[in-house]
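The passage that follows is intended for readers who have already worked through the single-chain material. We present the inputs for a multi-component assembly, then the predicted structure in tokenized form, and finally a short commentary. You are encouraged to pause after the input and sketch how you expect the pieces to fit together before reading on.
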Amino acid sequence: MNNTRRNLLLALLVLAAPFALAADRERIKEITSNMICMCGCNQLLGACNHLNCPTRGPMTDEVAKMLDEGKTQEQILPAFADKYGLRVLAAPPASGFNLSAWIMPFVALAIGFIAVGYVARRWKSRSPEQAAEAQSEIDTSKYHKRLQDELDNYTPED
Amino acid sequence: MAQVGQFALAMAVVVAAYSIVASLLGIRLKSDKLIASGRNAAIGTFACVTMAMVSLGYLFLVDDFSINYIAEHSNRDLPVYFKISAVWGGQEGSLLFWGWLLTVYSALVIVQNWRKHTAMMPYVTAVLMSSAVFFAGMNLFVVNPFNQIVVLQPGGVNALFVPPDGAGLNPLLQYILMVIHPPILYLGFVGFAVPFAFAIAAMASRQMGDTWIRTTRRWTMVAWFFLGVGILLGGKWAYVELGWGGFWAWDPVENASLMPWLIATAFLHSVMVQEKKGMMKVWNMVLIILTYIMCIFGTFLTRSGLVSSVHAFAQSPIGGYFLAFIVIGLSGSLYLLLDRLNYLKSDNQMESLVSRESSFMFNNLILLASCFAVFWGTIFPVISEAAPEWMGGGVKVTVGPPFFNRVNVPIAIFLMFLTGVGPLLAWRKASTNSLKRNFLWPAGIALAAGVVLFFQGVDHFYAWLAVVMSIFVSLTIAREFYKGARARSVGSGENFVEAVVNLTLRNTRRYGGYIVHFGFVLLFLGWSGQAFTTDTQAEAGIGDTITMRQYTLRMDRLAVEEVQNYTSTKATISLFENGEKVGVLYPERRFYSSSGQPTTEVAIWSTIKEDLYVVFAGPAPDGKKAIMQVYLNPLVAWVWIGGIILGLGTLIAMLPNKKSAPRTSQASRVEEKIEVEQHTT
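Having made your guess, compare it with the prediction:
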């Protein structure tokens, strides 16, 4: 009975092996698309296409080895950062000073929303007289010119 | 000929400087003669820089390797068309080319508008020539393309040296798209000098109505069109030439071209509010100033070596000069703007937050937020390194695609939403009824399609949202065309297609705009396909096969060939789809002997569903097989199709409106009624 169970488990593992390999490939791809190749190309590790690149292979193997050891992406990326410096990460970590990289675009957006809201409220609360007053300061020369042209071309009907 | 070029450059600096002085002095002294002299000098500057360009082109064609720039960017075997494109293939020549385009634009604008806007044109001339002096000056004093090679001989004597052959053009630039990509991109960058010059002139001459906007509307669209096409061609070049499987890597050079395009897009929308409602006048000034400054900033960013870029072929120590130009230009423009604020008050009040005006404000906000995110991400490595250590700085970090995608994708999706909603909101105030009428069906169908897509396995949230938004926006656009065309065909008896064409030609700006939006939708859809890219790498000898989903690739031949300028190793691969042969692919690897650099020529099997992208990565260690990298990139074709539609829509929007039919015709009356219903509800 025990033998049958063991054989069944073995068969299942053998059948599942290609899927496990595919899953590993996907995980390696996901992790290497968050890292920069250290050959100096400034490209993502997974995208570096330099012929005989000295670093892509070893770095990718290192990622695979860490995955085999059961490490997660959250453990692998800091380990690489310790080894190669923060430049190896394709995006700065969301901590310390680097947190500002992530939050500033959204802070700017929020400030923009507040500014748009403020301007819109001010425009909404303007009276028609205020608007007309502003209008009187605008350049009306083209309307005068058009009026003059039309008057010049005007032929009274009999 | 080099002396002719040198002399022409020196003359360009002197004549352009004279043009500025004569124009400004002419205004001050109210001297028409001086003003006219300033104008003539601007046209003379165009002649001088043209002479310099022709001289440089000639020196390339005759292989004059005594000139340092030519020895570094050309060689005898280089085909003639690449010798011509090599004129702008390096730092010195590309700056000369930029300056030349600026003088071409300046001459055209001056000739076109001199009699129409007499008060503004001397200022316009002075502003345009200020940029011309800067670029010609840079070429003359800092990065001179006509400098000869000088070597130090024994005894401390300098002597001229002529190498037997040149180092050749960067192989990555030896591609047909690279011949046209830089000129088109530069036409975009430089083109924004025209609306910028008019904006400054409007403020300086205190003519701050919408004359400057109406005058430069088409110029702005021309620049926007060229910049957009230039960006797309750059993406296409990266896709087919760099061989990493994608078309956009958020590289600083790419970002540098995207930033002014985003601000210019905001400007193109917000000028409509000023034209229709007399609002957002200060904002429009700010936007066009920022657009032009960002064009210069992009050049500074990529040429100064401030940030690392994969496009590092045109760097030199010119950063400081560009930074000074940016600071002077920006502070001068902003000072003028602050001084003229009183003349830039809004003419109207806002009635509702649910209106076309407010949708344009949000559209501007989103576009600028996106631009800021790109700007921030691009310069953050510099900021992080410069920040003090106690703040956690002092470290150089990388800001790459994961950052830009995570920050920009939600912003872009919101922009898509506004693209669908904005154009259908009425000016002043949109009623609840019109909202229901315009949006209920498109939103309902898009959501239903979203449910179907989810159950079909599209579970990547942003990709799913992008597709749903694309459907929603497409339906709102289709509905607009349908409604307008139906109204025309009911009244005039035109068939539906005729009605669509005539409708578009009668209001080119509005319907051209819808076509642009549709192009943007397709482009975005193509972009969202990147979330599902897969790839594999394999070694293949003759007869070996590589399988990727429904495709099988069989290596039939590997051959080495000597070509004029390089050695090629080319693979011949039969492509099978579900077992049936559908084509033959020829991925190639080239080695350019003059520069000693290898490049890859990708083979792409493109369908509207996906691209099979095959890269000859190199020979396997055993020397008998080839390493093939195969990517399956879904929906990429839609990026290019979307780009073409976007370009066509822009061209349509630039056309003058076809004259209206006589007011008495029934078609005209019905159409007007629909128009009134849609936009003043």
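Commentary: Residues 193 and 654 of chain B are 19 Å apart (CA to CA). The mean pLDDT of chain B is 87. How closely did your sketch match?
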